[in-house]
Structure prediction request, 404 residues.
Amino acid sequence: MIEKGKILEHLDKYDYDIRKTGNGRWIDQKCTPDVLSIVADCVHNYINDNGIYERFTSKDIWHSEYTESFVEQIFSKPNTKHEKTTNEYDKFFSQPLELLAHARILKKSKIGRSNYYRADNLRLLEFISIREFNSLNFLIEYIKKVLQDSNQLIHFIEFFDKQTPESFVQLKTQYEDFIIKNTKINGVTEVRRIFTKVLNPLAYSKKKKGTQRGRLSKNIITLSMLMYNQENFRDISSEKPKNMTRQEWELEHQSKINKEFFKYQSSKAKSFIKKYNDEFRNSKSEVNDEYSSGVATQIHHIFPEGQFPQIAMYYENLIALTPTQHFNKAHPNNHTYIIDEDYQEILLKAKAGTIKEDLTRSDEPIYSFENFITVINVGFNTDYEIVGEEYLYVMEVLNSHYCN
Prediction:
């Protein structure tokens, strides 16, 4: 597992001062946390198939078999071979690749008119590829480091302290002037498009206002505002109006959600939990019962993916089981469309134990009880909020639900 310290350790090796690099596109319009994570995932799979020393271009990545298997659904655009989308796909892949190269996670070389890349920090590339929150955490630290090296971070800190329209205009003007003076970008329009990707991740990390439609945002920046697939990341706890029920809010947003993206996230999450369970739990089942002997090869959705796609990618909704547990108990008689509710209770309580163990043992845990209560709320159609000791609270919630 990559810890935050490893991100900082990597970034500290390099000087990203824009006045020296002259690179005004060290981050770009398509470099959202979700797109960056997708591209990193595609690159990581390409490297796994072709070898760590294999050089590749942007087109090699977006024409790869792995990419073509899901990218059309994720981006809601025609497939990667469609002539009319060539320029659009090139941006989606080349801009994150350039960011990864500038950050020294990839090595870049130019042969003729083409940019070629190869892996330079494979572990950090994999970390970014695993999920969007990893990508976001990397982006925040990367942005801070570039601004710090460029002697620009102080201006952003001043804006976060003041949060006024005047301080926003002052910051935006300062950044525009700085980029135009020190890079090949010579127009404010292009700088302003990129400025959003610089400011808003920092604003989100500090729970502050940022920019929206070129102006100071009315409210603090939310996670969904940072993403390309915005509807898929909307947070009911922070974005649902108080006079609207959970059911009403979800119904309103359901039609806008990209369900194929949820499937992609779910697939990545299952792969990660399988790898994590193999590496840190010796491939053991998370449920200790009469069927737990043997290797836990199955990653099971506690609340079914088909019924609850919005929580299918949550690690807290995934549990490692043996084949017997999965096909005989979780899905009785191997009917994968059936859930045994009695066994579901056992699974949820076992998962609570896994989460507690992870939080106690790890400096960089992969689970949280906050996410677990979100999973429970969606699965049970409830609105619980954790009060007091987290583990005890969720166990009380589970006991209460299944007793009733």
In short: DSSP finds 19 helices and six strands in the chain. Residues 262-403 form one domain.
